[in-house]
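in:
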């Protein structure tokens, strides 16, 4: 009898250990930080994310060729064996050419890697290293032009003393890239780089935050010849306090930049614009009130930059709310913030998109319903004159959803939203779409494996 009891206990603990390990490894195979894009008619949609394969985080992509109705099996872009993170990607207006960039360890350092697809994300090139080995690189961002023949990439990389903003370009659809060029000065660290270009891609704008030895300030640099040469660096934010979260958009002539700058221990969203290719900039415009700090400021504009939208989320003393401000006169005057969510419970993780004309604009966020975080969307279909009163729920209740991203096509009719949501076992990437200007949305579909 003692033998049977002992044997049973050994068998029990063995099975328990096996079940625990199995559940543990299944639980860590989370997918997170999706990034969804479309363009043109919006028929082709691409979703990119980071997913744990049981050992390491890898970059995956999935695609739809029928307006989000069906999705292909995810494709691994980064190699297994080391962790990859912070993916970003873009596509051209034809929706044919798709480009992805991310950070991956080579076992010693974090390297910026790149892959491209020239056939609607059906096949991808082997990853190529853009940053040099020997030091860590981080925070990649990338942009392409109308037809995708030019691709521009930017990131931060250590020179063993400080983090420097570096730039590289491809003039052959991402098949080859130039040697990295330093954009920021040495002796102090720079971070949070962003890059923008116009349709013709002769105008390239770069922005980042860099320490001046006392504070982090927002800096800007401009190329008027497809990235071959760069003008002198311009300080956009005022000194004396820290600034962060820069974003930039250009149509070639007009350049719009935003960031958050500290003011009496609170961060305010600020805006400046240039109408002469970056030679001069307007005075700083404060977009947010000075009572509480803004988080996650984002900017989108119509193609002519007449309509400008900036969103963020902000703590109001009790809850965090989603705000958007609007300019209908090329950034001369902005409205007071519109609150997009129902009051009560916290909001976070905002994202925003608009169509080519600026008529249809969509903002997404994650909001607690008192039990779980739910992805919601608000919109304006009249150039920002009016907005939906409360957010529409997109994700299902019962489990937390996070990291929503939104994208629309050139007309604003097709709207795509993606997020990460716990399915009871692991975090998965889900997607919904609207084919009627955000009036109705599909049932959430899991696109990660």
């Amino acid at each position: 009898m003692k033998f049977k009891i002992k044997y049973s206990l050994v068998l029990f603990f063995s099975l328990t250990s096996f079940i625990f390990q199995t559940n543990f490894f299944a639980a860590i195979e989370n997918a997170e930080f999706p990034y969804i894009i479309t363009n043109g008619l919006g028929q082709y949609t691409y979703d990119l994310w980071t997913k744990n394969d049981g050992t390491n985080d890898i970059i995956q992509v999935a695609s739809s060729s029928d307006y989000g109705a069906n999705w292909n099996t995810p494709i691994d872009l980064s190699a297994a064996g080391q962790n990859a993170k912070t993916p970003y990607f873009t596509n051209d207006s034809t929706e044919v050419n798709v480009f992805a960039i991310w950070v991956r360890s080579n076992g010693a350092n974090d390297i910026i890697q790149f892959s491209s697809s020239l056939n609607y994300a059906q096949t991808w090139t082997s990853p190529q290293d853009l940053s040099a080995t020997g030091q860590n690189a981080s925070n990649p961002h990338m942009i392409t032009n109308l037809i995708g023949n030019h691709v521009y990439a930017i990131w931060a990389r250590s020179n063993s003393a400080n983090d420097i903003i570096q730039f590289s370009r491809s003039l052959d659809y991402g098949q080859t890239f130039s040697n990295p060029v330093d954009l920021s000065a040495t002796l102090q660290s720079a971070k949070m780089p962003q890059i923008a270009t116009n349709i013709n891609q002769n105008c390239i704008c770069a922005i980042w935050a860099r320490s001046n030895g006392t504070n982090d300030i927002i800096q800007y640099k401009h190329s008027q010849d497809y990235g071959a040469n760069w003008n002198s660096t311009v300080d956009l934010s005022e000194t004396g306090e820290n600034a962060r979260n820069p974003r930039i958009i250009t149509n070639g002539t007009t350049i719009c930049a935003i960031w958050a700058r500290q003011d009496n221990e609170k961060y305010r969203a600020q805006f400046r614009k240039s109408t002469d290719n970056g030679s001069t900039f307007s005075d700083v415009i404060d977009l947010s009130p000075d009572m509480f700090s803004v988080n996650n400021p984002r900017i989108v504009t119509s193609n002519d930059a007449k309509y400008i939208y900036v969103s963020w989320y902000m703590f109001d003393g009790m809850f965090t709310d989603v705000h958007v401000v609007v300019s209908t006169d090329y950034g001369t005057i902005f409205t007071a913030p519109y609150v997009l969510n129902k009051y009560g419970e916290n909001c976070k993780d905002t994202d925003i998109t608009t169509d080519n004309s600026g008529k249809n604009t969509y903002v997404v966020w994650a909001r607690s319903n008192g039990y779980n975080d739910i992805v919601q969307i608000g919109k304006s279909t009249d150039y920002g004159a009016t907005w939906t009163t409360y957010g529409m729920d997109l994700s299902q209740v019962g489990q937390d959803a996070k990291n929503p991203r939104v994208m629309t096509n050139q007309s604003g009719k097709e709207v795509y939203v993606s997020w990460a949501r716990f399915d009871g076992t692991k975090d998965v990437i889900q997607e919904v779409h609207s084919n009627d200007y955000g009036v109705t949305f599909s049932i959430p579909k899991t696109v990660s494996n």
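note: Residues 1-27 have pLDDT under 50 and may be disordered.
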